[in-house]
Design a protein that fits this description.
The structure is a homodimer. By secondary structure, chain A is an alpha/beta fold. Chain A has 14 helices and 17 strands. In chain A, strand 5, helix 7 and strand 6 form a beta-alpha-beta unit. Strand 15 of chain A pairs parallel with strand 1 of chain B.
């Protein structure tokens, strides 16, 4: 294969997306937009004077302090706050009479512009449009609907957030896992799958799902070099890249004086083949259920149509919150940046605390080791399960999903997980993330069923939780390996 | 066919719903729930001390006055209000530290209980569970995913909210229209379709979508007698009934002293075959994007799984709002009932104003007539298009979607719509709601293409809008028919 594929959306759309039928009212709306000052006897839109909600106030952290997260957590209830207000007054960035009315799938332009400004500031994408979502999970699953045809094979990391991959299975998407190392997805492994693809087994994968920063569960972050390679492969083999990046703002470069963030796939996307998903869950609060994705205009149109025919536009309170937060009366863009920079330092401190405790309590045991993650919330702990007295190699694991396993790693790790739980610690075994390899492509190496010797731990909790948790883990490991 | 079918969910599920794969983490959560006081190193849940949101205040209408909507709209900015507050304090009905954290698809129990209490109060369903939704559109389209298999034929009113029916088309649902009269869906027409069904044409329809009160667009309301008949037919032919009831609280019985509401399908549902959707859009504000559905436990489980693998749980701000509003610090159930009763009177006044203006300006013309709707927001205006000088009967309409038409009704109505628009009035022609009949079932009567002689008008607007709108309509009708 030579040269690159120009990006053509129609090659990638599911037949469901192509079969979408516009609401006949849309034609009427188009006519109306050309006609200003019409009298509307058309829509069942409750008049805003009948909304029983006059005003919404959000009391949020002040960002006046240089390190706002530190002062917020240190001063607690006495910490300074800022009041964001939305009413039907036109001083509001998104007045309630508009924010609480029906909208189309794009939501209110005030909220959309706020999200777009963030993306412009951090990624300066070449030629892209913002679509509001109900958070990244909603955004990703909409992308799966948009792109996924029964029988399609999509690509993902071999250790992945399975809630996402599983969400595609009922609609007929099959996942092909790409090998990883400590630095995330290996570009050469990705290319190998595509080079060696036999069309007799079905259409070559055309979608790559990737979490580039602080990947869940491995905590790995793709270097700029790897991103460039993966993007080139995507061009060569005509892949759409779904870039799910909830941990983008939580990056901890090894040089603490380096405040730069690794450029996103979106920022490299000259073709319009990247759909990037941004989330507020990790930097503000998960329950907001508001995020946005950034894509080419062609994807945007289809995503709006899909939104109009499923969830409809995001909730008004969230849109109002986002618009007010990023307005001049709120944090603004500069304040937002100050908050996330400060939050980054907070999580770096938590990460370092975790790693110090880990080192102090278990590091010398030789039973486990861990790499310092450069982003996110997770430490991927390698358990040296080969040292366990009952470790076995060369066994035949029998039938079923784990038929390729040649060791009892999975079984021992399950025992270890249960020992932790019995001792009052919840830590997640790698098996729940393992995307079973396709034996056709996974013939040259140790199958993933024999590599589930990891535990995922988070440093998102408090120091007390980390201290207690690692204390239990240290004790359990000693007992477990000494049996 | 004799006797009734016992309800069996598995006969109704789509293969997509049956193929849904649980997140492997779920198994871990089940284990954890049996283990109190564990230390969690598991989840990437930001600690609530890092949410930059301390407090949310919603300033809502006071319901102290006997007729709260009247005082709210009359006193405007000086109207009394009530402050709903949620913070992380346990005085909140749903504290922010919980409301803004991740939840499963069921959302927070506090919000779910608030919605369930409303349903219990108004419908006392025999044996059902509440599932939060992102509004009725989200709820309905989730039901379509749950029940709809490619090639399935679902039943709906012949004039329907096409955004809903169209949403099912890309996934392969075909719609069969059921005849209506001024009182809504005709049970005998429904039964005729099912009796005469030829299995050679595909599986008999197993889902009925119905808007029982103030149906959009016809404004019709099904009597209790019709509901009983339709429910019996559903039992006999094993239908699932999707009861979409956003106008339930806006019912205007002909006797103004009668404050009773027609019992819902849900309240009659001894079998568990009804899925009822409740919305806050028409009674509080559309932009809330929060509603709930009520179903059997078996449907609930599947809907939660679908929610977990698509939109995820509803937004925290909405859940907090609902929980606070219905708590003892908010309106409570009694206050809610007072608000909706008062709102009902407000919309009855608007409806009466509309009908009086209509009668005064156009009633004597003989060109149009309208029936007083007993619920909702819409008046369905019959245009006596047969009186138009260019009206033709007995024509052959040619190919395409309107091939069955034998008159030029559709064309004249389109002209009338454009004349209104040119005069500055937007009113919706029936054609955008017409669900094209299936010629196999629609052979004995005038096809719907010849019956699109209606206009849908709303009385949801202000008196000024209604007055202006009807003035334009009167003038346009005179000119249009006098040509």
């Amino acid at each position: 294969m030579s040269g690159t594929n120009p990006f053509d959306l129609s090659r990638h759309l599911s037949s469901e997306a192509k079969a979408r039928v516009a609401n006949p009212m849309k034609a009427i709306w188009k006519l109306i937009q050309q006609q200003p000052n019409v009298v509307m006897l058309a829509n069942g839109d409750p008049h805003f004077s009948l909304y029983p909600i006059r005003k919404v106030d959000f009391e949020v952290a002040s960002i006046e302090n240089q390190d706002p997260v530190k002062s917020w957590t240190a001063s607690r209830l006495s910490a300074r706050t800022l009041l964001l207000t939305s009413s039907s007054s036109n001083r509001s960035a998104l007045p309630l009479n508009l924010g609480l009315q029906y909208a189309n799938g794009a939501g209110r332009p005030e909220a959309q512009r706020a999200a777009a400004a963030l993306t412009q500031f951090y990624h300066a994408p070449p030629d892209h449009i913002t679509t509001l979502t109900l958070g990244n999970f909603d955004g990703i699953t909409k992308c799966l609907r948009l792109l996924g045809e029964p029988g399609d094979k999509f690509l993902a990391d071999e250790f992945a957030f399975r809630a996402v991959t599983n969400a595609g299975v009922p609609q007929g998407i099959e996942w092909i896992s790409v090998k990883m190392d400590g630095c995330g997805m290996i570009p050469e492994s990705l290319e190998e799958i595509l080079v060696r693809w036999d069309e007799g087994r079905g259409k070559r994968p055309h979608v790559l799902y990737v979490v580039p920063c602080g990947q869940n569960p491995t905590g790995s972050t793709l270097s700029l070099e790897r991103r460039r390679k993966i993007y080139e492969i995507a061009q060569l083999y005509d892949l759409v890249i779904i870039e799910d990046d909830p941990y983008y703002f939580l990056q901890y470069p090894s040089d603490p004086n380096d405040s730069s963030l690794v450029p996103s796939f979106l920022s490299l996307d000259t073709d319009g083949r990247v759909i990037r998903l941004d989330s507020l869950s990790k930097i503000l609060a998960p329950g907001l259920r508001l995020g946005w994705l950034t894509s080419s205009a062609a994807f945007h149109e289809h995503l709006i149509a899909l939104t109009d025919s499923s969830t409809q536009h995001p909730h008004g309170f969230g849109q109002v919150f986002l618009a007010e937060l990023l307005s001049e009366h709120g944090w603004g863009l500069a304040g937002f940046d100050r908050w996330v920079s400060s939050l980054r330092e907070e999580y770096r401190r938590r990460r370092d605390f975790f790693l110090e405790e880990f080192e102090r309590r278990i590091g010398g045991s030789g039973l486990v080791n861990a790499r310092a993650p450069e982003a996110g919330m997770f430490v991927w702990i390698r358990v040296n399960i080969e040292k366990h007295p009952r470790y076995q190699n060369g066994i035949n694991a029998g039938d079923g999903a784990a038929a390729r396993a040649r060791t009892n790693v999975a079984q021992l790790m399950q025992e270890l997980f249960m020992c932790c739980l019995d001792s009052g610690l919840v830590i997640v075994p790698a098996s729940v993330f393992a995307l079973s390899g396709d034996s056709v492509w996974d013939d040259s190496a140790v199958p993933i069923e024999d590599r589930v010797y990891f535990l995922r731990a988070t440093f998102a909790g408090t120091e007390e939780i980390m201290r207690k948790g690692l204390e239990i883990l240290a004790n359990v490991l000693q007992t477990f390996f000494a049996e």
